[in-house]
Design goal:
The structure is a single chain. The protein is mainly alpha-helical. The chain contains ten helices and no strands. It has helices spanning 20-33, 38-43, 47-62, 69-83, 86-100, 103-112, 120-134, 141-149, 154-176, 184-187. The protein starts with 19 loop residues before the first helix and ends with a helix.
């Protein structure tokens, strides 16, 4: 069984107005992975929107932080699980499998992180992630204190909040536009 491989009503043919920098960015992903992630194909329709999306993704997910890349991907999956975002569960679940070397962990986080064997640090991080995603108005100082007790600094909490916020935004965009993850993600790190 296969699924359609499409991105809303947008495709790379609409990318004529991309800056050279963003066109090079798409080419990098094509060369590195052999495909262009559908989320980037969608954003390619408008350079003014693609550039800040790419900049935020890099700032929150790839730049230096006390949160490891795996931890940031775990946050992305936990947010996406709460929001039932198919696109992000598939794509970031694949990254968790790849970065952790543990395909079971990737699947458990997609379904329910609470059944995974996690360190106290990761349990606190994902508990906080879930609360911010489900009920941000209920986050209080004891929630941040629990993170500090698990070893996170205030800067780490700020970085965590940015990743949580970014994926809540992204989940809503890809769900509203019915983006489908590239089929290649389903095969990664299995």
């Amino acid at each position: 069984m296969s699924q359609p491989d499409y991105v809303f009503a947008l495709d790379l043919a609409e990318a004529d107005n991309l800056s050279q920098e963003m066109a090079d960015y798409l080419a990098f992903y094509q060369d590195k992975f052999g495909f262009t992630p559908n989320v980037f194909k969608a954003y390619a329709c408008d350079d003014r929107k693609m550039r800040p999306f790419v900049d935020m993704y890099h700032a929150f997910m790839l730049e230096e932080s006390n949160l490891s890349e795996l931890e940031r991907e775990m946050i992305a999956v936990a947010v996406s699980s709460v929001n039932r975002c198919y696109y992000c569960l598939v794509t970031h679940g694949a990254r968790v499998r790849e970065l952790s070397g543990d395909p079971v962990l990737g699947e458990l986080l997609v379904i329910n992180y609470r059944v995974a064997e996690l360190s106290p640090r990761h349990r606190a991080m994902l508990d906080f992630t879930t609360k911010v995603t489900e009920a941000p108005h209920r986050v209080e100082e004891p929630d941040r204190a629990a993170l500090r007790a698990a070893g996170f600094s205030d800067r780490d909490i700020f970085d965590m909040a940015n990743v949580i916020g970014f994926f809540n935004m992204t989940n809503r965009i890809v769900s509203a536009t019915d983006m489908i993850p590239n089929l290649e993600y389903h095969k990664m790190a299995r």
